[in-house]
Structures are given as structure tokens and as C-alpha cells.
Write a structure and sequence with these properties.
6-stranded antiparallel sheet, alpha+beta, elongated, Jelly Rolls, 145 residues, 1 helix, 3-stranded antiparallel sheet
């Protein structure tokens, strides 16, 4: 059997494509280390209920993923219906008045208030004030044991 130039080119391109796919799958996202974020320097992205500033979504030395964002809800709005997810979440209210679904009960919380949403528990927030409500959200995914 004689290999043609075309056969060699096809074999070479196939090898390069295979190596590229394997390399892309093996590259893990970079681990985030100590850093400082200036939320006010991040441009807000308008959404139908207000705005969101995406801060970070990255693995850390001890977490599979750390995700943080800053949300502003317009008066009378909610970011989404009550829901649940495996990751845990911390919400720190900066301004305004929210109601949060926690333990099956809607509770009112204002500036400086902290909401913890445990894994797989139904939760949600809505702005019940007359002006905007802004809050920091910190989500984390721990390694599964």
C-alpha cells in the first residue's frame, strides 16, 4: 500500500484536531487566589427586573466554583420565581427592602441584612420597597464527597 500526499495531509490534520480536543478538555480553569473587586467599577448589565454586575465565576483552592454578582431590583420586582439548587448562597442587602422566602416563610430584610440559602432549599427574593433594592450574592459549589 502506497501512501499519497493527500493521505499524509489527512492523517496530519486528524492528529492535530484530536490533540487540540484532548488539550482543551484537559485544561482546567485557573484557580482564583486572593483578590479585591471594586463592584462600582463593573458596568451593570440591564435586565428586565433591574441590573446585574457579574463579578467572578471561578474555582478556588477549596471550592469547585465561587460565583459572585451584584443585583439591583427595581421596586416591585423579583429576579426570578422561588427555586432551589445544590449550591449554597449568601445574600447581603446593601440598600432597599426585600422579602425573602426562607424556611417556607416570607421574611422582610433591609440594609445590612444577611440571607443564607442552604443547598436544595426553596428560596427567593422580591423588592417590596418603593425604590431600588441592591444586594451582593455569593454562591459556592463545594467538592462532592
Amino acid at each position: 500500500m502506497t501512501l499519497t500526499r493527500r493521505d499524509l495531509i489527512v492523517a496530519l490534520l486528524s492528529t492535530v484536531a484530536t490533540l487540540a480536543v484532548v488539550s482543551a478538555q484537559q485544561q482546567a480553569p485557573s484557580i482564583m487566589h486572593s483578590t479585591v473587586f471594586d463592584v462600582d467599577s463593573i458596568a451593570p448589565r440591564p435586565v428586565e427586573y433591574g441590573s446585574v454586575r457579574s463579578i467572578v465565576r471561578s474555582p478556588t483552592p477549596t471550592l469547585d466554583e465561587l460565583e459572585m454578582h451584584y443585583t439591583t431590583l427595581n421596586a416591585g420586582q423579583k429576579s426570578h420565581d422561588p427555586h432551589q439548587h445544590a449550591n449554597e448562597e449568601l445574600i447581603i442587602i446593601r440598600e432597599g427592602t426585600l422579602e425573602t422566602l426562607s424556611g417556607g416563610v416570607w421574611k422582610r430584610v433591609g440594609p445590612g441584612g444577611i440571607i443564607f440559602n442552604a443547598s436544595n432549599e426553596l428560596h427567593g427574593v422580591r423588592n417590596v420597597g418603593t425604590g431600588p433594592a441592591s444586594y451582593h450574592v455569593v454562591n459556592w459549589k463545594s467538592p462532592q464527597k
